[in-house]
Amino acid sequence: xxxxxxxxxxxxNVHRRMEEYGETRLVAAFRGARQVAFAVIATTVVxxxxxxxxxxxxxxxxxxxxxxxxxxxxxxxxxxxxALSLSPMLASQILPQEAGKAxxxxxxxxxxxxxxxxxxxxxxxxxxxxxxxxxLFLGILAGTQWLLDNIPSEYAPKEDRGAFxxxxxxxxxxxxxxxxxxMDEIERRLMPLVESGEVTRLLVRAPRTFSNFAIFNSGxxxxxxxxxxxxxxxxxxxxxxxxxxNDLPGVRxxxxxxxxxxxxxxxxxxxxxxxxxxxxLAEWRDLLxxxxxxxxxxxxxxxxxxxxxxxxxxxxIDYDRAADLGVTVGEIGRTLETMLGSRRxxxxxxxxxxxxxxxxxxxxxxxxxxxxxxxxxxxxxxxQLIPLANLVQLREVADSIKLNRYNRVRAITIEANLTDTLxxxxxxxxxxxxxxxxxxxxxxxxxxxxxQDFRSTGGSILFVLVLGGVIVYLVLAAQFESWIHPLVxxxxxxxxxxxxxxxxxxxxxxxxxxxxxxxxMLIGLAAKNGILIVEFANQLxxxxxxFQQALLHATEVRFRPIVMTGITTAAGxxxxxxxxxxxxETRAVIGTVILYGVLAATAFTLFIVPVAYDLLARRTGSPKxxxxxxxxxxxxxxx
Length: 639
Known about the structure:
Multidrug efflux transporter AcrB transmembrane fold, about 15% strand
C-alpha cells in the first residue's frame, strides 16, 4: 500500500481534471501532477523521517529492523519519484480520452457518490457543531489511555516455532544412571504424541549440556513438531506435555519455547536480586518465593540458580585449645590441604627438566568424616602429635554448587514461565512490588534475558516514537512554513494510535516490539491524509476562494484519494492477518496495527482535520502567500 499511494494520488487528480474540466490527457497529466507535487513530496519526506530513526535503534531491535527501515525509506522515496515522473507520462499516453465507462464502473461511481454526499452532509454538521467533534477527540484520547493501561505488554509475542524443549532437573549429585531411568520414563510418556502425528520425533539427552563440564543431574527432550496445519498449537501441546510429566517424583520437568531473540533457552521472567551475602540472599529468596506463593498472578515453573543441595563438611577450629596446645591455625590448614587435597612440597631436576613434588593423602583415607580422626598435627611447643579431632569440630552443611554474580555483585536469579493470563510487564511489576514491600532497601534488583530486553527496549522504542513525532512536526513546519498547519496534520496521529490499540485489544494481542514498530510507522501513514487536505485547502485559498469554501472544496476533492489510499494500505496489511505457519504471530501483530490504525485514521481524519483547520488556521497562509507578499514588498521597494 505504501509504494502505490503516491501514484494513486497523482492518477486520481489527473483523472479528476479530465472529467471536471474537460482537459486533454496531456494537459491534465501536466497540471494534475504539478497540483499534487507538494503533497506527494511532503508525505514522502514525512515517511522517510519516520523510518530512518528506526535504523539507529540499538541491540536486537536495531539488528532486526535496520534493514526494514532503510528498505522502506528507499522504497517510499523511489515510489514518490515514479509517481511524479513515470505516472504522469503514462497517464498522458494511456488514459482513455473519452468518458465512456463500463456498467460496473458506473455502479461503483454511483455508490461512491452517495458515500461522498453523506460524508459532506456529516462534515457540514461537524463544522457547525465543533464542540461535539472536540468532545469526540478528547474521548478518543481518553480511550487511548485506557487501552494503554489495559493492553498487556511484553518483549515479543509468543511464537509457535515448530519445536520446543522439555528441560529436566534432578537432585544435586544425581548420577547418570539415575537421570537415564527418568529420561526413559519421560520418553515413554511422550511417545503417544509421536504416534498421534503431532510430534514428528523426540530427541532425548542426558546430561543437558554439551560442554566439557557435564552436569549429570539434568536432561533435555527436544520436541520437533509436525506442520502447523496438521496439529494443535505448540502451546496446547506444551500444556499436554506438562500434565504428562508433572507427577514425576524425582525430577522437575518444564517445557520451554525458544523465542526469536537471544541464543539461550530461557524462561521469559529472569528476576535478579543482589546486594548482600549469599546467606542473606537465600533468606530474601525464600521470603520472595513465599510471597509469590501467597498471591501468584500466573507465574509457573519457578526456579532459581542458588540451591543449597550440595553436601559439605564445615571445619570449626577450637582456637583456644589449639593455642594452649601450641598448634597454629596455619598448621591445621596445611594438614587438611595435604590430606584432603594436595600440596606442592618441593621440586627436583632431572635431565634439565624441573618437576614438582606433590604431597597428598591416600584417597582411601578420605571416604568418611570419621577418617579425620586418623589425622594428626605436631605441636610447636611439645613437638608431640596431637589428634586433629581434638582441635576441630565437623558440621555437615548444604551449600550451592554455584555462587553466581551479576554485574560483579553476589546475586540470585529467580526465573519463571508465564501463563496466558499474565504478561511480562505485569509479572515484573508484581515482583518489583514484592521487593519494595517486603525486602530491605539495600536489595539490588536487576534483570536478565528477555526481561532485561523488555526493560531496555521499551525505553528506546518510546524515545524513537517521540523522536519520530518531533521530526515529522519539524519537517512539516519547514515545508508549510507554519507552526499551525503541522499541528492540524499531527492531530491524526493519536487517532491512528487509538485504532491500532483497539485492534490489539479486540484480537487479544499484546503491546510488544513488533506492535511498537507498527505504531511508529503509523505516524507517517496517518499524517498523509492530513497533508492532502491542508495542502489543497491552502492552494484554493491562494487562488482566491473564501476560507470556508476552500475548506469544504478541499475535503470534497481529497475525499476520494484519501479513501483509496486508505483502502490500498489496509488491503496490503490484510495478508499479514490471514497468514499462518512460521512467524504468523509476529506478522499478525504488525498487520493488526496497520489495518486498524489506517482505517481509524482514514475515518476520523475526514472530520477532525477540517474542524481543527477551521479552528486554528483561519489566520494562517501558505508558503505561496508569503512568497507573493515578499514579491509585492520587493516591487514596492524598487519603485
